[in-house]
Amino acid sequence: MKHHKLGFLVIFVSSLVILSTPAIHAAEYDILATITVGSGPSGIAFDSANNRMYVTNSGTNNVSVISTATNAVVGDPITVGTNPHGIAFDSANNRMYVTNYLGNTVSVIRTSDNTVIGDPIGVGIFPRGIAFDSANNRMYVANGGSNNVSVISTATNTVTDTITVGTNPRAIAFDSVNNRMYVVNYHSGTVSVISTATNTVIGDPITVGTTPHGIAFDSANKRMYVVNLVTNNVSVISTATNTVVGDPIGVGNYPRAIAFDSVNNRMYVANHNSNNVSVISTATNTVIATITVGTNPHGIAFDSANNRMYVTNYSSNTVSVIDTSPATASGSSNKEHLTRPTFGISHETNLPLVTQGFSFNEKSFDITDNWHTDFEQQTIEIGQNNTFSAKAYAPKGLKTQEFLFGIKNVGDSHNAELGVEIQYSHTGNITGAVLVQKTNVTDPDSFFGISYPSKCMPSDSNEKCITTLVSLRFLEPLQYDIMAIKAIDQKGRTQITYLNEGFDISGDSLNTMPTQTIVGPAKMGLVTVTQNEKYSKYWTAGDMVFERNDFGTFTLVPQPYIRHQDSGEPTTRVHSGFAALVSEQKILAQQKMQEIYPGYFDAPHKEINNIILGNLLDPKTD
């Protein structure tokens, strides 16, 4: 057993930057190449006749052509319209159709010699998505600015119809089984269905997630998969009933595009802000892998000839090539699941591979779902030492083991309040630890960590798993309960598992509220303010309340005008400074009256006038 007393590198951040999506299946999803193209690559489409990928470069107003045989750019970029985005292949005429977002046009490229033919075709405002109707030889263009779809005859390259849909249509996909177009309406949060026989919208719009952005057709199961940008998930629509089936599938951050692997029946989702691609099994509608690609993946397309996915990386100006070949995906029993790490279930067989994958204060739990597992909520006492351990199977060697606390929702580990990362060398020794927290959640001096080899299953003869144990003392409550454990192996393959109910970390904070000295209102000089409560934007100094913005600037909050039983007399209004003066003068007057007229305050009310009158007739000499 290897024991390691570690010193923490403590980092305080406004948001915890840790990838939140599940794992990459390494043997199945190798990155075969990274290809440099033009500026701001966005859309991508496969020319199945010539085995080439065509990439729209939105920043350089042209299209790059990639040979899928060599994964190299061939020829010079093809100049098209302004800010090209969407692209689709006309398999009947061997042409590429490119939407020019700021030109409000569509350019047509002949793929035999890669030249633009004819004048640009005028369509609606801000055309983006485009799809080919192979049954009727038409292109359908989603016009985001005019809330409609233009229909182009590929025989004449003219617009023959315009169909009104929802607000800001972004993407479009063809259902080749029922001959329908499905249009994603970004601002409506819906999908419109168009009959290509009549070019009319049929039925009511289908409600999906917030700001849907991409769509792809699963021809094997007759379903449409819609990526929802803001809600970070994928909605599944049955094209038989045009209804959403099942719960949304959580993926990475800001999913923008999606493509169907028709060989292995999987959906690949380009997650713009996570810089990765989520792989969804269409058999189970669960994420089975995550693949790291370039910066801000924007578009994605499948090469059915070579079993590869091509991903455009908008900010890297590159295209990543992912190997989806079933030759490496199939696996076999003698390979012992040589893919990504797991805390419980085999990614190949969906059978238990690790038992007691997580423990808390010596109480062990089985991980029954690789993405989010059932977990009865546990309680953490503030001020007490607590131990957490994760047992991971990582045949390529463990690189990091992470414990993430205070997560609001499954899939949101990037916003965790506290993260503990244990780092390993290639030889399996702990080399360091990093604590990342938004506030002073835990005491770094209370931490210690150990790791040791262990049996994955009680029946195993060898110790093939690595158990990482950490001890922490919490100093203050957390906002959210969900916890996650995350493992990355030496090949960069990742597994993250959420413990659904997580931990109740509540009680009185051992930390004092932070203070800060600021410049007060006019003529007050420096003022020391104290934060009201954890994460609050309001700070106080006496009766004054200040609001702190994201840039650290404080602004005095105007106090409400309060009137307490206002009699209408200015001198009796509590807010008036004159009222305090009146009260003080009344006390002085009463003292003087008692001195001049003894017994004045003790006499019945009816005798007061006689007392005053008697003193006036017989005044005191002093």
Describe this structure in words.
The chain is globular. The protein folds into 4 domains: 2-17 and 337-506, Immunoglobulins (Immunoglobulin-like, Sandwich); 31-328, YVTN repeat-like/Quinoprotein amine dehydrogenase (Methylamine Dehydrogenase, Chain H, 7 Propeller), CATH 2.130.10.10; 515-556, no CATH class; 570-617, no CATH class. The strands form 11 sheets. A 7-stranded mixed β-sheet has the order 2-42-41-40-45-46-37, with no helix packed on it. Strands 1-43-44-39-35-36 form a 6-stranded antiparallel β-sheet, with no helix packed on it. Strands 4, 5, 6, 7 and 8 form a 5-stranded antiparallel β-sheet that branches. Strand 18 and strand 19 form a beta hairpin. Helix content is 6%, strand content 45%.
Keywords:
single chain, about 625 residues, mainly beta, Immunoglobulin-like, Methylamine Dehydrogenase, Chain H, 4 domains, 3 helices
User: How much of the sequence is in beta strands?
Assistant: over 45%
Number of helices: 3
Task: Please identify, by name, the CATH architecture of the largest domain.
Answer: 7 Propeller
The radius of gyration is 34 Å
Indicate the low-confidence ranges by residue numbers: 1-27, 326-337, 561-576
CATH topology of the largest domain: Methylamine Dehydrogenase, Chain H
β-strand number: 52
Shape: globular
CATH homolog superfamily of the largest domain: YVTN repeat-like/Quinoprotein amine dehydrogenase
